[in-house]
Each structure stands twice: as C-alpha cells, then as structure tokens.
Design brief:
By secondary structure, the chain is an alpha/beta fold. The protein has 2 domains: 2-163 and 364-378, Rossmann fold; 173-360, Glycogen Phosphorylase B (Rossmann fold), CATH 3.40.50.2000. It has helices at residues 10-26, 38-42, 59-64, 66-83, 94-105, 130-137, 147-154, 165-171, 180-186, 203-217, 235-242, 254-259, 270-277, 291-301, 309-314, 329-341, 343-360, 365-378, and strands at residues 2-7, 31-36, 46-50, 87-91, 114-118, 140-143, 160-161, 194-198, 224-229, 248-251, 261-266, 282-286, 320-323. The strands form 2 sheets. A 7-stranded parallel β-sheet has the order 3-2-1-4-5-6-7, sandwiched between helices. A 6-stranded parallel β-sheet has the order 10-9-8-11-12-13, sandwiched between helices. Helix 4 (66-83) packs across helix 5 (94-105).
Length: 379
C-alpha cells in the first residue's frame, strides 16, 4: 500500500520514522512519500520536502514567511494528487495538516485516501474549535496521550489510544548502559556533574530561552553546562546565542546526555516527557513576550492547567513550570538549587515520574498504530 506522511518538526520526524518502520514490518509492499526529515529518510521512500523548510511557529514568523508556507501547501497538495496514496498520515503540525485534510475531503482528489491523524494536535490546550475540523475531515485519530481520550469523548468523537512512542524510543535507545566516565570521555567533557540544557527545537526558542538558562545555571560552578543540540540546528545556531559562554553542545545524544545529568532545564514539549522517563529532575522554562498578558490569558482562556506533558499526564504539578510572569533568571536559579540540593524534593519528583510512566503504559505504540492504520485502509 502507499502512504503519504506529513511531519513538520523534529519530534514528528522521529515518531513518523518509527511508524514507517512498523508499517514496513506489517506491510511488505509499503511505499512512502513524505514531508519530513532525516529520520524518515532513513526508513526509505521519497523525501519531498524537509521540515526545516516548514518549521514556522507563531503568527509573526508565519506572516513573514507566508509565501513559503503557501508554496509548501500547494506542493503538498499536488504531490498527494499525483501519488494517489491509500492513506495520508498527519503527524501533529495542525495549522498545515488540517488544511491538507480539508483539501482532501473537498473532492479535489480522485480516489480520496483515508486521512489518519497520528499524534493529536493540542486542541485540549487551546483552539478547541478545531474539533469541528477534526470531526469533519479526519477518518481516524490515534492518540499518544492518555488524557486525550476523555477530552475527545466530551465532543462525541472516538479516538484510539495506542500508547506513547517516546516510551518505545527510550526502551530501544543505544548506550543505555553507558557510564558517566564513558560519556564525558567520548564527548571531551570535564569530569564534573552535568546540568543539561534543552532549550527547544526552533531557532526562536533557542534565542528566547537559552540566555536565561545559562545565566541561572552558571551560578553553580561545581557543575558543567551541556546543551542537547536539536535536530535540524547547527552548532553555529547556538554559538550566535552563546558567544563566549563556557557551555558545551552535543548533537544526536539527548537521551545519553539526560541519563548522565544531575538536573535539566527544559522548554515545554516532548523533551519534558523524555526527561521524566529518564528520571532526571527538571524545571520547565519557557520565555514568552508580554509575560503578564500571557499568564492572564493562560489562566482565564486556556482549557488546561499546565504546559508540560509531565504535569498534564499526572494531572497535578510534578515539575515546576516557569513561563509568563514566572519566567526569570532568579526563579530558574531558585528551582535549580532545590533540584540539585534537596534530596527529598528530588525523590518526590521521581515518585511523580513513576505515576506518569504507569499511566502511559508499556511499549508498542508504533506497532499498534501501524496495525490500526492498515486495518482502516482495508475497510
């Protein structure tokens, strides 16, 4: 069967690649074309556009690159129409993907494919009005967060929870038994405890979050600071922000770095969950413009109480979230001191992590998703 996949950022590229591997195991004739990234390309098929050309977040970046966004959308529609896939699999990235789904349901494509969403848009946080588009255009929603099932049930829309692919990725990771000495030696790091810095996957997130992270973490001279380089970014992207700061960067080793870290400063997103699954104490830091307005809007207009996946899954505050008016170097430094020095606090956080892990369930998300997708196509 023929599958067209669309992933617009690094995490989507990773999850889509694992899904492709599972589809190939169940469907020996699987053929792929996709908008995605390097991980997907490793699984075969044809990469039509890299997510680096698509990763625009927020109103201003989208407006500034509107011509590129519209061209990407036009190219995607044409590619699907030419390919005539059995299924189009959308991975998060809702602003783009829901427009593609609408186009496919408009009758513009001969022999319309099944439209499957793998990894739901975060409409449970905001833009809940998108539920109308999902009910109208999406044939199947595959969820990777357990609380999403009840959210969609409120709107009389049935979704399938398949487990969380991050659990699979961590279970299958390389260097799981690596020692601290081995890690620092291979990366030419100092023989000092590590504070990991995960400042986001986009350039604008790096520019916003990294300076405050470094300023706060530099207050602990007995630790070395190491950045987890994001896929799709280069060392030069970080050096523009770092300047002469004594901070090291490692690429392609996020799980290895976290495993060897005493604590982590993490922007909101999948990274918060990865950090929790590796039992690393963390503080969630996310700088936003108009910080007081952001806090007011989040409190009064958002449909959820937390921004981190850890707290959302636990449905209670397991990790500290510093965003809006609470984001500052002082606040980050204060929380980091507790993570490094208060053993009871660290133990409490890790107990919270265990509850999150239990709610996520075991391994096999990609395999379950692939099986359901094939069954849906055959129907």
């Amino acid at each position: 069967m023929k599958y067209f996949l669309i992933a617009g950022e690094a995490s989507g590229d990773l999850h889509a690649a694992n899904l492709m591997r599972s589809l190939k195991a169940l469907d020996p004739d699987a053929d792929f074309r996709y908008f995605g990234g390097d991980r997907m390309q490793e699984q075969g098929g044809i990469l039509l556009k890299h997510y680096r050309e698509m990763a625009f977040m927020g109103i201003i970046p989208v407006v500034m690159h509107l011509r590129t966004v519209l061209r990407n959308m036009s190219d995607c529609k044409k590619a699907i129409a030419d390919y005539q896939p059995d299924a189009v699999v959308l991975i998060d990235y809702p602003g783009f993907n829901l427009q593609i789904a609408k186009y496919l349901k408009s009758g513009a494509v001969e022999n319309p494919p099944k439209i499957i969403y793998y990894i739901s848009p975060k409409i449970w946080a905001w833009k809940t009005y998108r539920i109308k588009a999902i009910k109208r255009y999406i044939d199947l929603m595959l969820s990777i967060l357990p609380f999403e099932v009840n959210f969609y049930k409120k709107y009389e829309y049935s979704v399938a929870y398949v487990g969380n692919p991050t659990v699979d990725e961590l279970a299958e990771r390389d260097h799981a038994d690596e020692s601290f000495a081995e890690f620092v030696a291979v990366n030419h790091l100092k023989n000092k405890p590590i504070i990991a810095l995960l400042a986001g996957s986009r350039k604008q997130e790096i520019r916003a979050n990294l300076p405050a992270m470094i300023a706060a973490a530099s207050s602990f001279p007995n630790y070395q600071l190491v950045i987890a380089g994001a896929p799709g970014l280069t060392e030069n992207d970080y050096r523009k922000v770092l300047k002469d700061a004594p901070v090291q960067i490692v690429f392609g080793q996020t799980y290895r770095l976290l495993k060897q870290s005493q604590a982590a400063l993490v922007t909101s997103g999948t990274a918060t969950l990865e950090t929790a699954l590796l039992h690393v104490p963390q503080v969630v830091c996310y700088k936003m413009p108009f910080k007081y307005a952001v806090s007011f809007i989040f409190k009064h207009f958002f449909a959820c109480r937390y921004i981190s996946l850890v707290n959302l899954i636990a449905d209670k505050p397991v990790v500290k979230e510093l965003f809006g008016k609470d984001f500052s170097v002082h606040q980050i430094r204060h929380e980091l001191a507790a993570l490094l020095n208060d053993l009871a606090y660290r133990r409490t956080m890790r107990r919270g992590y265990n509850a999150v892990i239990a709610r996520l369930g075991g391994v096999g998300a990609s395999q379950k998703a692939a099986k359901i997708i094939i069954q849906t196509i055959k129907k």
